[in-house]
Amino acid sequence: MFMIYHGTGSLLIVTLITASLAAAAPQENPNPPANAAAVFRLVQDGYAALERKDYETARQASLGALALDARNAYALSYLGHASEMLGDFPKAEEAYRTLIAVNPRHKSAYTSLGIICGKQGRTDEAIANFRKQLEVTPRDRYASANLARAFAFQRKWEEALSPGTMAVELAPDVPGYWQFLGKIQIKTGRVDEARRSFDRALALTHEPMMENDVAYELADAGVDLDRSWRLISEALHQDERLPCEPGAISDGDKCTQQLRQTASMLDTAGWTLYRQGKTAEAEPYIRSSFAVTPRGEIELHMVVVLAKLGRIEEAARILAEVRERPNFDLADSREALRELTEAAGGDGELGALLDRFAPLKPETLAQAKVIALVDGIGKVAAIEMPDSAPAGAAEAAKSLTLPPLSWPGHSLRSIRSIEFLSVDGRWTPVQSYAGTTPPPPPCGIVPQPRLLVTRDTGSATVSRGCPADF
Fold first, then answer.
1. Nearest Cα to 373, choosing from 321, 440, 436, 308?
2. The CA-based dihedral angle spanning residues 281, 285, 291, 293, taken in that order and rounded to the nearest 10 degrees
3. Of the given ranges (19-23, 206-210, 422-426, 461-465), which has the lowest mean pLDDT?
């Protein structure tokens, strides 16, 4: 599923709205099985492992408990949560469905199942489960917040308003709920109400990314642009106090997480400048963001800015790639299409450009991946590949200049992954991103191995752009 993400609704900084652990620590079973003591110890072990984020140990402990007591609700809940965090969505779904069969009135199982459905791209099922949870527990903030998010994912903003409002009524001390309600309100034309919701979010104790999130919503709506710039400037200033630059390829993903957070802020800064009519000033911010994580809204913003600057072929190349994504129709690409159509000279001209830059089909071609240390102007300074890697890909990488991580006052070294395809005997770069671990996959897309030659320090994390995440 094509992923649209930003800020605390993004793959970068997220608080997962899940109630799977809301049942707290396991309690003694009033009707214990014969081996109750062993089951209880295993369930306790599973809970403790989840608390320290050791999901594989939690999974094994929960499976052990279920081998002794197949209807243990705590073990089923913990197995579902551990499987979800390990990216095994089918196993998580099975655990939650079994939990519901054991206890159809469970206070969080439908919400947890809805989250898993959403992460697999089944948004209508997610909505049905969140609604069922609200039937079972009518004033449940997790179900309310997730239902609002699921409607928003479908761009059903009016439907999102009621559960979004309920979420802040039930948990008025959660700044993320106020921020998201402000997003819904601004999307439904309730601008003054949105301002008040954003003010409430910023008045509560919050993470620095909250300024980014509010700034983005204001900029995207073309509202209070001076305030948007003040907020994102301060957020960037706070973020830049702890700059992270790798010294060598061996640093791997040392800086990746911080760079992805910074990328979200850079995109907001660039989009705010663009909305202010400062397109040339916006370009280095958005390009730097694009260099870190070329996904979703950032790509579409890049298309808009490039079209406005008259760099039509580069914009068309990006859009040609983006529109091949599964469920691209869920993206709000109207502005990108409008600006590029106008820049190209009409629908026919744009269609010809997009056909010209149709992306290569990787399943039919040899593939390789190079890890590179890139300097502040985008020049490849050093590379690393396995000994078995094709020499041609290494040589092609050495000659590249990638989009730089460079914006006013900053020019950063970075570790980049560069993916290649072999086309007519030549190694052609098709994608690059910051770090050695790929960005999270879109909702509902189970990541498949794309590369025959690879060096990764870890697997892709669970997608953060799904209906249940913000």
1. 436
2. -140
3. 461-465
Other C-beta atoms lying within 10 Å of the C-beta of residue 316: 24
Domains, the chain, ordered by start:
7-221 (1.25.40.10), 234-361 (1.25.40)
> DSSP string covering 69-128, please?
-TT-HHHHHHHHHHHHHTT-HHHHHHHHHHHHHH-TT-SSHHHHHHHHHHHTT-HHHHHH
Work out the end-to-end distance of the chain between its first and last CA atoms, rounded to an integer number of angstroms. Answer: 17
Q: How far apart are CA 235 and CA 70, in angstroms?
A: 49
Pull the structure tokens for residue 457.
């320090």
Question: Rounded distance, CA 470 to CA 468, Å?
Answer: 7
Of 460, 464, 441, which is closest to residue 15 (Cα–Cα)? 464
**Contact criterion met (CB below 8 Å) for 167 and 145:** yes
Tell me the β-bridge partners of 406: 411
CA-atom Rg of the chain in angstroms? 23
Q: How many residues in the chain? A: 470
The residue behind tokens 């970068």 is 12
Angle in degrees, CA 144, 148, 149, rounded to 5: 115
What is the full DSSP assignment across 371-414? EEEE-TTSBEEEEE--TTS-HHHHHHHHT-BPPPEEETTEEE-E
Q: How far apart are CA 339 and CA 144, in angstroms?
A: 37
Residues 255-272: tens digit of each pLDDT: 998 899 899 999 999 999
Dump pLDDT digits (tens) for 29-64. 556 666 889 999 999 999 999 999 999 999 999 999
56-80 mean pLDDT: 95
